[in-house]
Amino acid sequence: MIENVVSLELAVDENLIIKKNRLTPSNINGQEKRICIVTGMHGDELEGQYVCYKLIKLIQDNIKCLNGVVDIYPSLNPLGIDSVHRGLPTFDLDMNRIFPGSESGAMAEHVAAKIIEDIEGADICVDLHASNIFLREVPQVRISENMKDKLVPYAKLLNMNFIWIHPELTVLESTLTYNLNERNIPTLLVEMGVGMRITKEYGDQLVDGIFNLMKKLNIWKGEVIDVREPIISVEKEMNFINANVSGVFMPSVKHLDVVREGEKIGEIINSLSGEIDEKVFSPCDGVIFTLREYPVVYEGSLIARVVGGTK
């Protein structure tokens, strides 16, 4: 059933309407567990659109296997998606920096509060994001260090390649994920793919993981696949590779390639002189999990992330 989460009138006879699709079993007793899948917070992150479509289709095609409530929110920022704008158009706001919001506040704050109110009471939530247009990320879950004991067991069920545990100091308290976790709703921040694109194989991978998570929570009683074992890392094991010169980056490795310290991962070429201005090498043994997608780089641009010392 498609429902309105919040609806507001805008100028020139326009409306801001955020909708969700609630999928339920035929017979409900009120004791069912509930999972929320949210995405479309940033208008230039589209990976979640395919995931929502695929989840809804597979659940509807196998509705007898549904044993709980699934709420799917494909577009928390519909104006941003419609205008290919990362933030909330007109207001020049990043929606993921205004939570928990305020029902009596300005429009964006009101919307944030209504989203929180609608998700309240869920047993678990998956907050799906994509990277920007410059970097491609392998499917991963990002978890604050202070939440690792609670969230890592759930994250392992999601069929992701990587779980990134980062220091609590780097966590933004104005994000949806932070605020839901503060309300004791276990919320997994998933990031994958690249901005303004859809990577179908990543979407299929996550959909398999969501069904596996739902099975473990007794929301789904259908068959699920055996999920992969993710790499788990902490911040101190992260190695960032940045460009020392401007130019065009040409990679010589792929995502999830295992590299050795000193191994070449690419070159920055000069299209005017025909020369190689920099050869880029890995600073450690490890695995490539972030790689430059947009080839034009400037001094300081992030080229790749290599995770070493994984477990």
TrEMBL record:
GO MF annotations for this entry? hydrolase activity, acting on ester bonds; metal ion binding
Name what cofactor the protein needs: Zn(2+)
Gene3D superfamilies in UniProt = Zn peptidases (3.40.630.10)
Is DNA-binding one of the keywords UniProt gives this record? no
Describe the location of the Succinylglutamate desuccinylase/Aspartoacylase catalytic domain by residue ranges. Answer: 33-215
What InterPro entries does the entry give? AstE_AspA_cat (IPR055438), N-alpha-Ac-DABA_deacetylase (IPR053138)
Q: Reply yes or no: does the keyword Metal-binding apply.
A: yes
Task: Supply the alphabetized keyword list.
Answer: Hydrolase, Metal-binding, Zinc
Protein name stated in the entry: Putative deacylase
Q: In which organism is this protein found?
A: Clostridium saccharoperbutylacetonicum N1-4(HMT)
